[in-house]
Amino acid sequence: MNLFEVLRFAVRGIGANKLRSGLTMLGILIGVAAVILLVAVGNGSAREVAERIEALGTRTLTVQGVGGGSALTRQVAEALDDPVLAPDVTSVSPVASTQATLTYEGTDHSVQQFVGSYPSYFGASNSPVGSGSAFTDDDLKQGRRVVVIGRTVAEELFPGADPIGMEITVSGALFTVVGVLDEKSSASGFMDANDVAIAPLTAVQQALTGYGPFNSIIVEAASSEKVADAQSQVSLILSQRIETAAGSTSQPYRIQNASQLLETQTETADTFTTLLGAVAGISLLVGGIGITNIMLVTVTERTREIGIRKALGAPRRVILTQFLAEATMLSLLGGGLGVAAALIGSNFTIVGVKPVIVPSSIALALCVSVAIGLFFGSVPANRAAGLRPIDALRYE
Amino acid sequence: MTVLDVQSVTKVYGEGAATVHALRGVSLRVQRGEYMAIMGSSGSGKSTLMNILGCLDIPSAGRYLLDGVDVSRLNDRQLALVRNRRIGFVFQSFNLIPRTSALANVELPLAYAGVKAAERRRRARVALDMVGLADRADHEPNQLSGGQQQRVAVARALVTEPALVLADEPTGNLDSRSTEDILGIFDDLHAAGRTILLITHEEDVAARASRLIRLFDGQIASDVQQERVLHEPV
Known about the structure:
The complex is a heterodimer.
Chain A: H1 3-16, H2 18-56, E1 60-65, H3 74-80, E2 89-104, E3 107-117, H4 120-124, E4 129-132, H5 137-142, E5 146-149, H6 151-157, E6 167-170, E7 173-181, E8 196-200, H7 201-209, E9 216-221, H8 227-241, E10 253-257, H9 258-301, H10 303-311, H11 316-345, H12 359-386, H13 389-394
Parallel strand pairs in A: 3-8, 5-7
Antiparallel strand pairs in A: 1-9, 1-10, 2-3, 2-6, 2-9, 4-7, 5-8, 6-7
Helix pairs in contact in A: 1-11, 2-9, 2-11, 2-12, 9-10, 9-11, 9-12, 11-12
Chain B: E1 2-13, E2 20-31, E3 35-39, H1 46-53, E4 61-66, E5 69-70, H2 76-85, E6 87-90, H3 102-113, H4 117-130, H5 146-158, E7 164-168, H6 176-191, E8 195-199, H7 203-206, E9 211-216, E10 219-225
Parallel strand pairs in B: 3-8, 3-9, 6-7, 7-8
Antiparallel strand pairs in B: 1-2, 1-4, 4-5, 9-10
Helix pairs in contact in B: 3-4, 3-5, 4-5, 5-6
């Protein structure tokens, strides 16, 4: 009696009740597919966040005002651009941004971020101009109302037309479009990175935001290795320039760099992935209990058959192997189909996230499903193998 | 030569007030080639005796030697081997494996014996041919009549060429024609020198055997050699 024979018996046992076997497999299938797919979704969203942060530029530091404070003034911004105190800072771009409605010939488009900044912002924020040109230092000095728009804005306002040289109205002020940004790859998730418009700081302040404090200051370091140095230089200058209000323990500004942001976001995403995986793991466990249940029913139902087999000379080991093989096959088949389902499912975008399969999750889910088959199958298989032939034969 | 040697075997079921003495000391010797019938009213212990002889059950006390080997000393694996190689069992309720073709049912003991697939198929076909069911090899049990099912079961019992064939009321569920078929096969087996033990309720079935044992209340009431009454073919 070789293993192949036993496996053939097991296949016949599974085939004998196709609906039941199918439903049992479905339980494992759903469990395995859920584990792989949910982990993939978590992984996908983590990747997306990482990409988005990398798209911000890994060489940049963002100084943000905290609590609506008025810390980030023009003087502060100018102080940061100091080749002696901050040798590793190559550019400083103060940002005044607001939400604005752009109008062109009766077409409205509300843009999330209407950014006013310096020409250096394009390099620092990793937003190269695709067609047309960026505005210049001269435009900035003169306060010319020119604007570079993102890809989404261009498509909304000028479908099928070249927007360069067109005049658009931004909350009542006329701006001339001089350029269109390249499409940003990380354009997904909650915010559309292509839904922006960038204009000279002076023009934006004059026409839209007024001359208040900046929302943020983007500081570009000489290289990604110099980011940490630049950060300490910047924080030194800021601590000298900005006084912390009496009685307040926290600074009125915050310095973030992309890699810090990346770390925090990755941690969050990992927690998210673990949580999703745990929920999916529970469904896999439920699938396993389903296998135990069905194998117990099978053993009970086939007690007589077990008796006959024993009377014909089937050793205990063969009966044990047969029922274990049946349980393992059910779980392995279900697991395999689950992997297939997950691979198919990963081609679709799920809740706005493109899942990215983690190969180790496939291996893990498959191993767990086989282990479940062996573990949950062993109880009924042992029961079957341990039956005395006469008891099994008398069973009604 | 002695095939079966049963020495004052008893079998007790249950405990306390619910104790049932199914066998109260049965001793029996069966020689190779004997055709023996066991009769007795229900509750006389004949099925219990048969189960013990078939190594499906173990006696509470006493010794049972099969081909000179004390069965109680065998472990689970060796017992399986004995059931597989030495004994062919025919049950009253056929006990074929459902949803499995007649051929596969007959092949089963050979599969457990480790015979190769091609050889197994050949021997199973020969056995089916012997019981006259060669043309029904691919039918599943629910596609066969009771008599045909029992003939498949007999083929299954014969296919390993066991020294001992045990039949527990093999004709109990069959009509007279099928009964005649089965008994005809047993006659042939006896002629071929096999040892046959058969439990029955029916006098005319018992009359085909060369030795008749009557059990009463767990003990042997009578044990006689008799002239075989062969049924004349009509």
